[in-house]
Amino acid sequence: MLQWNSFVQKAQSLIDPANFNIPALSSSDHNPSKASLFRQQFRLPDSQNPLQEITADLVLPLPNSSGTQGDRRVDRAGARYTGRLHLSERFICFSTQPTSFLPSASLTASTNWTGQTHGTGPSGNGFTLPLSCIRRVERLHSASHVFSLALTTWNGLLSKQQEPNFVPQRLIIQLVGSRQSSERFCDCLKKGLREGMKEVDNLRLVVSDCYSEYLLSGAKGKSQEGNEADARQPPDAGLGMIFRYPGDARKLRDRSKMRLWGEYFRENGRNTTLVRQPTFHKLIRVGLPNRLRGEIWELTSGSLFLRLRSPNLYQETLAQFQGQESLAIDEIEKDLNRSLPEYPGFQSEEGIGRLRRVLTAYSWINAEIGYCQAMNIVVAALLIYMSEAQAFSLLSVLCDRLLPGYYSTTMYGTLLDQKVFESLVEKTMPVLWDHLGKFDVQLSVVSLPWFLSLYINSMPLVFAFRVLDVFFLEGPKVLFQVGLAILRVNGEELLDVQDDGSFISVLKSYFSRLDESAHPRSENPKLRAITRFQELMVVAFKEFSGITHSTITEQREKHKDAVLENIENFAKRTSIRNLGPESKRLSVDDLGTIYDRFYETLYQWQQHQRLIEEERKRQEKKKSERLSILAPTESEVGRVGLGPSPTHMDYEAFREFLAATSKWAAGDSPAPSRKNYPGDQGYHSQKGSTKSLLWANRRLPADHEFMQRLYRKWATDPTEGLSLQNVVNGLARLKGSPDIMNNINYFFDLYDDSGSGEVDREGILKMSEALLFLSRRGFEGTISAPTQSLEDLNGPRDREHAEQNRLTADERFLGSVSAFIRRCFEYADPSHPQNQGTAKNNVTEAAEKLDSFAIGGDDDEDLIDVDGDSKSNKSPVSEASPRPAKSNNPNATTRGQNRQASESANPALDPNNPLHITLPTFRMVVLADELLEQFFESYFPQSFHLSDHPHPAALAASSSLSSNLTTFSNLGSLRSPQLGAASGVSVAGASGGIVPPGKGLRGVLDNIVTDGIRMAAERELERNALGRDEDDDEEDEEDYPRRADASAAAMAGGIGSWGAGAYGADPERRSVREADRDLLEGAEVVSVRGKDESSSLLEGNEDSELPANKAVGSPTDHSGGNSSSNHDVEVVSKVVEFDS
Amino acid sequence: MSEPASANAPKPSSSVKLVLLGEAAVGKSSLVLRFVNNDFQENKEPTIGAAFLTQKCSLPTRTIKFEIWDTAGQERFASLAPMYYRNAQAALVVYDVTKPSSLTKAKHWVAELQRQASPGIVIALVGNKLDLTNDSGDASESAATENEFESTPNADEAAGEEGEEQDVTPGDARKVPTREANTYAEEEGLLFFETSAKTGTNVVDVFTAIANAIPESSLKTGRGTGAGTGQTALSGRSEDSRVNLGDRNAATAKEGCAC
After folding, report:
1. No. of helices (H) and no. of strands (E), chain A
2. Whether residue A811 has pLDDT greater than 60
3. Element (H, E) at A128
């Protein structure tokens, strides 16, 4: 079972669209999809796809000569980069990395990309321009054949204030390629630009939040002590503006960094229009200046583009969910006072309020993650440097792309990256790794918080922010590089460590001294000036430069299965343990099987639904909703280990579950083209993976009323669906006790819609239908060959039984079911006491006759009494008497009543008189038939297959069980000595009142075979036919063309045709059913022509299938039935054929 | 590495790995803080993954140095727990006496430990926040400030509660009767205490009882340095080495479990 589980998961992981977006794996080829690589490289939102690409030269014009630092500019003048120019829906991107993302491009190119990202960061040199920030594009006239474009951007033109010495940004791009492809690129660009114009307002809004605009506007420089009253307020650059930024600004050389950035911006554009040159990467490596930190983080992480797409999402989300409560909010509230409490901003209501709002807003737009401890720390850190809206979108980039799965409800990403980290340590520092292993020090105990909170509460803040600067530019590999460097730098000390405690303390003391000199005793002052942190950075990015993005991706792939499996095992263990007392009735193996099957079904169902949904969306070509901008689109859903997965299955999924559990729940046609499976086959056949093939080749589930009942019975709230708990409880009640009475009661309960302990006529018919449904795939050996007892009981019918013995269990079971119906009606009680008064007048011979045999009392005592003295049945007599078998005067009022009550009650002998059976009656009827008894004894519970025991063993056990327990042979005088006692006890115990069952039941059976009831039975069945028709009309179930048997005859003769019509796709089955019919015809069924009474009865009914009803007879079962003529039988089968 | 106990350390000293588990906000960290620093803080930094602290506990015959792993209580951190309870010799499973759901969660943890942790792990069930009940003599404070988390409806819990409802005095924030928890603890063979990290009631007693309950055989002796209380959580004394007995490695916790 476990092996199967892991196999399933492995198979899944092969096909699953990667949950890790960096780079996401496409479902088809186990390789990062071009589109996701593209987005990853340029940090674009998920909505972007590579549309066009072309090789191009980027020529940066000479910086305009206003010249204080002319020399340096000249150095860089005319910088020219060769690379690829890419176009997506809303972005034009240029990178010097020779990469290709077009779907047609070869795969190696995109893998190359991942290999080259280290050092310069994934973006390389170039730009990522939203098309909206391009003001105009000119085709340059050049002497040569070169196709040159000049892009003029909005850089610096969006604010009202004119900047001093401003020169518009102009980028020259020379397309290298055929004229045709260049033209094509330009056409696409033109289209994009037109679209982009709509976003200029957004752009203006977003850009105004950027500190760079303020910086370059010159407002800062000039606003010396209020000589400009209306000086622009600087944009929000985080809490640091109010509460000071961490660290000593002078020591951090904040001012000169700011100057350098200002210069860089002037030459290369700012925020959205920034062009990346080598200096850009260098400036980031030395640490960002405080006031620009937030903006550059936003830019390098790509969260700026999310904000550009929907600039007001943050405020809107807050407004939309204002005042609402959630678990996440409670959890957030608890941590607000303990997020970076050492920073003054978070000791104030201002800081705490911002933190609360950002975390809350995020918990709303990503409810799957909600809130995870550690997010508070990360967001608190972000808020020191950026505004709430900026932190909000950066948080979503973190959760979706940079730290996939870190904060999910299972934290699989965290655990996975710990595994990856450990494997990297093992690879790069084998000595240390061996040492830790030897002393059983668990690395992840230490390193987990590093990753989870991005070193923020491990290192002093100033240094953690330096790590973040690089992290946002270069991606998650930075966390690994830094982690490895920490261990490397402390290698010697760590080799002395022998337990977790000292391991932690070595590192803790290291972190506390990061600002000290790395070489305090060095002669060389320059060397002495190098801090431990600088040393750490050098080690991280030089020594571990080999740790690239592809390393991480590869390692994640490698460990993903094991990690998910661990989590899932943990989840499984935990939830099975927590299933409550009811579940203890099932074995742990069984629970494990249910658990696996439950989630497997949910998972598959979810995937399936998603595909359908995608298909639908594609067809509608609908733009994705606002929220999906931030929501990850390529993540798989439903897998337990990955986070919040659905916990409830709806009826459709439940059918799948049942189909995997029970043979009878599997559909009959292996590959149906049902209308609720659009695209199913197509999709699955496209994917060549094992798992989806398994799912595609599964038997589609049947749909039967019985399954619906089971669903409703098990569900706490059917609209919500079934939880694992529901399913376990449901199965525990069915399989948990080997007691036949339990099973019979359970089955009865399923049909006791009103909860009144009564099942009406309709219910009886549905029960019998369910019996046929459940048995239509055979009994898997649980129903044994006919025993002596049957003959014994039905002594007079020797000939019949000789015949019956030759028949298979299947065939005989049909007989049992038809007998079941008949008996149910025989012993049914009338439902409406108010009818009794009038009805009494109409007591007929038949009814009187019936009275003497009617035993269907309301309680067990009646049943017992029957045996001794049938005349003493006071309650059955009085209740049976109102059956006005011959009364043909259905007056309007009662009819109305009946129709109203038709759900809960139906007439038996007369439409006016609804009838019902009670549980004791039902039990009796079941126990009156050996096959039915065996059915409930063993087949029914055993047909739910749980843990995959080897079949032979299980079946052997089951068949022995069935023969050991209460069968009629046991009950009668022939009971085998060693088993009889036990079985007798169990029956007596479970059934409560039924004392000496053997004798009593035998007496009952004697009654059953008396032909005195023939008349009554006929009438019942005629009425049944009507009931069925109504029933059919109401339910309109496509799967069961029961109109075919809209006749009383169908109850017996038609059973065969149900089999053929409803289940009989294969000829073999049909032939079996035909054999059944023979059986029914020969042995059990007497078809009687409709009598005058019945036709007049029918006339009162508005049922549309009146003629059919007229034409048919009804089966009875008694010795007299043998006299039934072939003629009658023919009529029956003809009617059936005609109708079907 | 390990030297015989020297003259200035008359009592043998041994380390015991102890893990704290329990629902969020039941006061795990506060219990540890009370034990280690004899302090109480209203706003403790949340535990990310787990916090590590040490404290010595002096018994008449020996000194036990507790290496305490204080785990995060948020539900989603539960899958990290195996990493921390791995090889633990003792566990403190904490619930909140004012919050029945926390006892249910505690029971889950007990079951988890009994099946997955080292065999012979000493488990103490601790009902914290005794100060909020009438028993403590200070019932003025209400438990209403506590947020209700993870109130997973659980059949046996509900049943258990209703049965004992009459035990709860009106006006008392206590929702989990002592008797109920005690009965459960006895059934499962756990040590049982009700504590208040705020007032300090019973806190040291819990740890002392655990120290006493640790079988001598499973103790690893280290170089004892007397019974000084480790006031700092991480003293950085790497010289405090000790022998790693085989039994620690032989623990059953699955290698690399869930991490």
Report:
1. 57, 14
2. yes
3. strand A126-130
Find the helix or strand (DSSP H, E) in which B70 lies. strand B63-71
Q: Look at the block and give the residue holding tokens 């972000």.
A: A382
B41, B70, B79, B115: best to mutate for the A interface, most A CBs within 10 A: B79
What are the structural domains, with CATH classification, of chain B?
13-228 (3.40.50.300)
- Please, what sign has the CA dihedral across residues A318, A322, A328, A330? positive
Q: How far apart are CA B72 and CA A541, in angstroms?
A: 32
> Helix, strand, coil shares of chain B as percentages rounded to 5?
35, 20, 45
Structural domain harbouring A66: 12-208
Q: Where are the alpha helices (DSSP H) in chain B?
A: 28-37, 81-85, 100-116, 155-164, 178-188, 203-213, 246-249
pLDDT for residue A346 is more than 90: yes
Give kind and range of the element (H or E) at residue A918: strand A914-918
| Set of chain B residues whose Cβ sits within 8 Å of the Cβ of A414 | 80
CATH of the domain at A261: 1.10.8.270
Half-sphere exposure of A189 (CA within 13 A, CB side): 24
Within 8 A of A374 by CB-CB distance, chain B residues are 46, 48
Q: Name chain A contacts of B259, Cβ cutoff 8 Å.
A: 415, 418-419, 442, 444, 448, 563, 566
Q: Could you give the 3-state DSSP secondary structure of residue A22?
A: coil
Residue that finishes a domain, picked among A510, A532, A547? A547
Residue identified by tokens 């049945």 is A873
Question: Chain A to chain B, count of Cβ pairs less than 8 Å apart?
Answer: 155
The answer to whether the Cβ–Cβ distance between A570 and B24 falls below 8 Å is no
Q: What is the pLDDT of residue A934?
A: 78
Q: Report the number of secondary-structure helices (H) and strands (E) in chain B.
A: 7, 7
Distances (CA, A) of A376 to A237, A371, A452, B57: 19, 8, 11, 35
Handedness of CA A529, A532, A533, A538 (dihedral sign): positive
Q: Which amino acid is at A875?
A: S
Same domain, A924 and A988: yes
Instruction: Kindly report the three-state secondary structure assignment for every residue of A1038-1052.
Output: CCCCHHHHCCCHHHC
In the predicted model, is pLDDT for residue A606 greater than 50?
A: yes
Which chain B residue lies closest to A510 (C-alpha atoms)?
B236
pLDDT tens, residue by residue, B105-131: 999 999 999 988 888 899 999 999 999
Name the domain count of chain A.
Answer: 4
Task: State the average pLDDT over residues A767-772.
Answer: 81
Question: Taking CB atoms and an 8 Å limit, are B75 and A409 in contact across chains?
Answer: yes
Round to whole Å and give the CA distance between A960 and A942. 13
Same domain, A416 and A396: no
Domain match, A290 and A200 both: no
CB contact (8 A) between residue A499 and residue B25 = no
The lowest-confidence range among A645-659, A680-694, A925-939, B90-104 is A680-694
Both A387 and A293 in one domain: the answer is yes
List pLDDT tens digits, range A153-173. 888 777 666 666 677 788 888
Tokens matching residue A458 = 């491990």
The pair of structure tokens assigned to A891 is 């007056």
Using 50, 70 and 90 to split pLDDT, how confident is the model at A1?
Answer: very low
CATH code of the domain covering residue A519: 1.10.472.80
Question: Which residues make beta-bridge pairs with A270?
Answer: none
C-alpha to C-alpha distance for A198 and A1003, rounded to whole angstroms: 89
Note whether A378 and A435 are same-domain residues: no
Q: What is the DSSP string of A594-606?
A: HHHHHHHHHHHHH
Indicate if A894 and A996 belong to the same structural domain: yes
Q: What's the helix, strand, coil split of chain A in %, to 5?
A: 60, 5, 35
Residues A161 and A253 in one domain: no
Residue A595 burial (CB < 10 Å; 0-12/13-18/19+)? buried
Q: C-alpha A760: how far from its chain's center?
A: 38
Residue type, A894: T
